[in-house]
Amino acid sequence: MKESELSTEPIGQNLIKLISNLCFSVFVFSVLIFTVIAITYQPPDPWLESAPALTKLFTQTENATFKNDDSILKTGEDVVLVASPEVPPALAVNPITETVIKKSEEKILNLNLKSDCEDLKFVNCSDPRVLVTVERFNLKTFKFIVFLEYQTPVNGSKLDECDVAWRFRNKKEKSWRKYRDFRRFKFGIGENCTYNVVHAGGWHSGINARRPRNRPNTTRSSGNLRLAPLVGDEEINDTIPTLGSEMNFRKGKYLYYARGGDYCKGMNHYLWSFLCGLGEAMYLNRTFVMDLSVCLSATYNPSNRDEEGKDFRFYFDFEHLKEVASVVEESEFLRGWKKWNRGRKRKVPVKKVTTYKVTPMQLKKDKSTIIWRQFDAPEPENYWYRVCEGQAAKYIQRPWHAVWKSKRLMNIVTEISGQMDWDFDAVHVVRGEKAQNKELWPHLDADTSPDALLTKLKEMIQPWRNLYIATNEPFYNYFDKLRSQYKVHLLDDYMELWSNKSEWYNETTLLNDGKPVEFDGYMRVAVDTEVLYRAKTHVETFYNLTKDCKDGINTC
């Protein structure tokens, strides 16, 4: 018995050791595989949201064609970047916080200003204590706003009133742009003979603080331009930069995309392709040649026809694009090219690329002044974004941060939000063609009926709140039933902001050689999107109002 035990014991121990070693080997092998994957994986875009998520957001690809979801239009200022570009030094401003206000109060104490209540009987608007009072009031009242700078208060219409102007930014916007408000404040005398705000006026009520804005023409000089009677946002500078001397042109390196099959496609398709070209130019360390003429798809036009000749600057922030990327306008580029070649035997070196299958990696070491990509093949082979497919997707990072919505459109967004005192909720109601298509969205029409909306919203939004409705529903009175419970706001309630007496109208007319610009469907959706994102409570159609899937049945 003892001999048997002695002979079996080593076998048991060896078996345990064998199993232990095997498990350890599997663990080491798993770690090794994970490490290799972690090292070799390259995300295509440096965003907090994954590249596939952004791809799905902007486009739905199927056999190199696009299914457009034009109900929400995100651009760079709507998404948080992992590697956010630095704020230009000229635009860097420290926000006004409680700490900053306390430092201002300390400086005022050192001034030994009189604090006799009799002296405060009539408000002296230039008294620094008035400004400090307004700063603290605003900081407490508007919690979603970052206050950047104030102007010295000026007299209001009465002895106890002052008009105050300031620049600010909404906390939900990821850009570094500034917006302007000016309001009228009525003051009383508080404890220890200090000022306090008795009443604050609404958006843009402090008209005496509105500075006259005499900004020069921001487009190329033209004899056909008619100056608008009102001037616009002095912070917008979307001038077209010139190339300068012929030698400057020759020193440059350019990537030129000829017009392809993307022209007159949906705006999501346009952005996907445009950012592919811009991303390749950045990868090749070249200046991207831009055609500022945009063709607006019939999707966004009441006439249901494609409309050519729209200006890029109607929709997007060209000033910001110039700050973060090297771009040149197409006609300016062609003028420089033609001027250099005129009368010279040695022409500008040009490399023509006739297929998207020539990858950016193959062009990396090319020394030609101009790389000219041509897209003459039939669709979908002639789409710009094909350049960034396949292996190129590992090297070309679409610079989403470079595209912001037009500051002129964002001024309308700010105006709408400001008129609701930044205190509102919003619901995104998708109807239109989707509500009519019962095969793909069987419940959407019923789930977004006025009765159903009222029932659902009562569960999510308190009564008598400001409720902004972002929608593609064409009938203005469709949502009247909601007015029994909420202060309903629709985009068409603010038509004066793009009427022929508006700042937007005058600015865009100036850009468009004196011809009025239509406030088209794309602009409407862009504004709706941005107001929606600024709401305190945000209700979505396909997540809150209906069980139907956003892209149709069985796609959730």
TrEMBL record:
Residues 248-541 form the DUF7075 domain. Keywords: Membrane, Transmembrane, Transmembrane helix. The keyword Nucleotide-binding does not apply. Residues 122-205 form the DUF7074 domain. The chain crosses the membrane at residues 21-41. GO terms for cellular component: Golgi apparatus. InterPro entries: DUF7074, DUF7075. This is O-fucosyltransferase family protein. It comes from Gossypium lobatum. The lineage of its organism: Eukaryota, Viridiplantae, Streptophyta, Embryophyta, Tracheophyta.
